[in-house]
Amino acid sequence: MTNERNHRSIEKLLPSMLVLGLAVTYLGGCGEDKDPTPTPDAGTQTDAGTDAGTVTPDTDLAFVRLNTNGTVDNSFGASGNGISRVNLGTGAGTVRDSMWGISRDAQDRLVVFATKKAEGTRTDTDRVVARLTANGALDETFNATPAGNARKGFYALDISGLGDAARHGLVQEDGKIMSSGYLSQPSGVGAQSANRIVLLRLDEAGTVDNTFGSKGVLNSAPFATNDPAKEWGISEAYAAVRLSTGAYVTTGYGRAAGVSGNTVDLLSFRYTASGALDTTFGTDGSFILDLAGDNDRGRDAVALKDDRVFMVGSGTPTSGNIDAMAVLLTADGRPATADGFNEGFKLYSFDRPDEAFFDVEKANVGAEEYVAAAGYRAGGGQDDDAVLLIRNMTTGAEFAGAVPFSETENDRFWGVTFGPDNKVYAAGFVTEGGDNRFAIARFNLDGTRDTTFGTGGIVTVNVIAGKLDEAARGVAVQSNGKIVIAGAAEAQ
User: How would you write the chain as a 3-class SS string?
Assistant: First the structure.
């Protein structure tokens, strides 16, 4: 199903554009955000966390902690109800606090990858990396001496007053923090603008890691071209995973320079530990997956213990039919072989026209390595349903299926993780009578629900009653088994 576009070469790189082609301002502080910037594809999928449609009230980041049995842990947060809210600032229009993921560090502190409204009168978004204490308070030891009058507790990145699109992030074993995303910036060719990969690396204290990129920022245009008659390509990084060598491999989507049309391909690049593009990766520096000339997207990835990279997202094998998809690459960007994978990818059909995985996590269970991916199926005149993949990468055995919270209303998964109990936790939202609720389910490794958790394996929590603008985007399980569901909810 792949075609010749899988083997396009990267155009001649513009050296001045590879790392930090525009001025960068570093903010430490408070502001606001919006839902993720629209992505440059013509498909039906959206990155919005809820089904709230055109309703765009101000939102805050919201966190709920559960005990191991699924009851709300009232010792979490300052309100005494197990809920913690973090207000990054007042939104404006569609620009508001928005979250893409959560991780935890070795001290069980919660590291959040988000966006907020830019400072002052600007209405674009700035990228945010925030840290909460293990008990849900904004950790003011993180970025403890921010610039200007910005707040402690989070780091905000502004590049030349342009709207940044933050995506997934990770906490490394050495405590450093990697945030992935992309940003539309002028190409220098006429009036063109093009999306570029932007990676941000912070040290454990929440300040920029000057050993990476330029002042901690990699601003990369791998599909730049010097040909004025040819449009720049576009490239996005929804995730950047770290290999044992210290190098990073991205997943996302876009298209190469000079390619006509509005469709996008799944893209992957490799960068060195210091933030240089590695042109030995894949074919002439890139892995490009185009199934059938339609939209194919990478949404998240994990690095396996042998440095293969397991990516998830969606592929379009035929027009009007978007399937959830997994991609398996070698560390050098070549299609890897595994049971059920064809040319490095595998499609998962859940009987709807619009399907995708949005999050993936891995775990070692004894001598075996597992991955879990979560997402949704939609369309076909039916309500949306959560979908789940659990795959044993050692044996090839897997569970893949729809696992809805509700048989009659909309629900989706946006985040997934493994707990120290070797259970799989998947979180998102469910709509109940016009009211969205945080929702989480716990699964055994064979894909069955763990019915000792909550009610039949499911817990729902209403952060704010009667509102559609409420959804969990991620989940983290602390070392003591406590479960933190993280997302956004309408501001109070």
Answer: CCCHHHHCCCCCCCHHHHCCCCCCEEECCCCECCCCCCCCCCCCCCCCCCCCCCCCCCEEEEEEEECCCCCECCCCCCCCCCEEEECCCCCECCECCEEEEEEECCCCCEEEEEEEECCCCCCCEEEEEEEECCCCCECCCCCCCCCCCCCCCEEEEECCCCCEEEEEEEECCCCCEEEEEEEEEECCCCCCEEEEEEEEEECCCCCECCCCCECCEEEECCCCCCCCCCCCCEECCCEEEECCCCCEEEEEEEECCCCCCCCCEEEECEECCCCCECCCCCECCEEEECCCCCCCEEEEEEECCCCCEEEEEEEEEECCEEEEEEEEECCCCCECCCCCCECCEEEECCCCCEEEEEEEEEEEECCEEEEEEEEEEEECCEEEEEEEEEEECCCCCEEEEECCCCCCCCEEEEEEEECCCCCEEEEEEEEECCEEEEEEEEECCCCCECCCCCECCEEEECCCCCCCCEEEEEEEECCCCCEEEEEEEECC
How far from the centroid of its chain's Cα atoms is residue 354's Cα?
A: 19
**Residue 92 structure tokens:** 């404006």
**C-alpha–C-alpha distance, residues 218 and 275, integer Å:** 6
Q: What is the pLDDT of residue 148?
A: 73
In angstroms, the CA 358 to CA 238 distance is 10
Measured distance CA(185)–CA(124) in Å, rounded: 13
Using CA atoms of 62, 358, 153, 127 in order, give the dihedral in degrees to the nearest 10.
-120
Residue 461 pairs with which residues in a beta bridge? 438
Query: What is d(CA 144, CA 67) in angstroms, rounded to the nearest whole number?
Result: 31
How far is 83 from 368, CA to CA, in rounded Å?
35
356: β partners: 376
Whole-prediction pTM = 0.92
Question: Which residue, among 35, 37, 48, has the nearest Cα to 92 in the 3D structure?
Answer: 35
Q: Do 377 and 385 form a contact (C-beta atoms < 8 A)?
A: yes
**Cβ 186 vs Cβ 193: under 8 Å:** yes
Contacts of 16 (CB under 8 A, 6+ apart): none
Nearest to 479 by CA among 42, 55, 107: 107
Q: Which two tokens stand for residue 415?
A: 């985040």
Given a contact cutoff of 8 angstroms between Cβ atoms, the answer to whether 199 and 178 are in contact is yes
pLDDT at 87 over 80: yes
| Cα 142 off chain centre by | 22
Burial environment of residue 130 by CB neighbours within 10 A (0 to 12, 13 to 18, 19 or more): buried
Residue type, 122: R
For the segment 115-141, what is each residue's pLDDT rounded down to a tens digit? 999 888 888 899 999 999 999 999 999
Q: What residues are paired with 476 via a beta bridge?
A: 484
The two tokens of residue 102 are: 């959560």
pLDDT tens per residue, range 63-85:
999 999 999 999 999 888 999 99
- The dihedral built from the CA positions of residue 70, 72, 74 and 79, taken in this order, carries a sign that is positive
